[in-house]
Amino acid sequence: MGLSAKQIASEAEHAAARLAPYICKTPLVFSHQFSAASGANVWLKLENLQDTGSFKLRGATNRLLALPEAERLRGCITASSGNLGAGVALAAQRLRMHGVVFVPEHTSKTKLASIQGYGGEVRLFGTDGLDTEEYARSFALENEQVFISPYNDPVIIAGQGSCGVEIVEELPEVDVAFVAIGGGGLISGVAAVLKQHNPAVRILGCQPLASPVMTRSVEAGKIVHMASDSTLSDGTAGGIEEEAITFDLSRDLVDDYVLIDEQSIADAMVAFIEYQHQLAEGAAGVALAAMLNRTDEIRGKTVVVVVCGGNVSATTLRTVLEMTNG
User: Fold this and answer.
1) How far apart are CA 16 and CA 251, in angstroms?
2) Is there a contact between 101 and 73 (Cβ–Cβ < 8 Å)?
3) Among 45, 106, 168, 189, which is 20 to 30 Å from 135 by CA?
4) Which residues have C-beta within 8 Å of that of residue 317, sequence separation ≥ 6?
5) Which pLDDT tens digit goes with each residue over 38-56?
């Protein structure tokens, strides 16, 4: 499979059909409250209602479905204490594969229990996430098992792009899409599909000001390495792999980037709770806040915000409510 946007979009179409028996086709709902607040016609793609509470299940399942039977029998490996770990665990369970998720040694018992609850075997290694991932990759290589990357894999990107296929099917007249961006897997897949459908669709990449790695990389014309501050949007925080295929895709497909401060993320998360009576994690809050930040640009247009996940801990939720005097 090539890496052009056209080919990514085509593979996403195939992925959507392949994934249908294994994932939830999440609701695309019109939000009266966010529409009133923005002056746009705002639709929410509710990936927070996906199985495991995150879009990550799409890419993980697509990757495992693409494996030859011999590789499935050997099992799969990933490194993640969050949404990817849960997605790989559930995908492996559904395909009757053995899935091992490596997590840092300080990972909370709640996160460990979540991954184990989806059928994953959890192993502890490392302290900062990067050493965990490096060890997991080498472990997979030594044991001839597939390593599931969070974003740096065209099959993963196509799986995430199935979200865009569902958007186009239900809302072909979309003008603008707001999508959170970390490593770039979700936005690369969704943007490829939407741009193939209509090149005039504007794609807005949404990042926390505390960790704007992809934004700064695109500005610099190369992947940059920079420190990230603590952020409510932990799902988008951190660095980008060298030679990540999502860099070129994000540079070519994303029309603009919106950087959001922590207070605005918290405010958007609480607004989502009040308006939709559901939870949105910090990365989803970034996309919602970015939409509210660009009201002059989107007024009167048909807008989609990808609510990429709803996995927020009680501790984080308390912090958010304190920040908003809730």
Assistant:
1) 24
2) no
3) 189
4) 279
5) 999 999 999 999 999 999 9
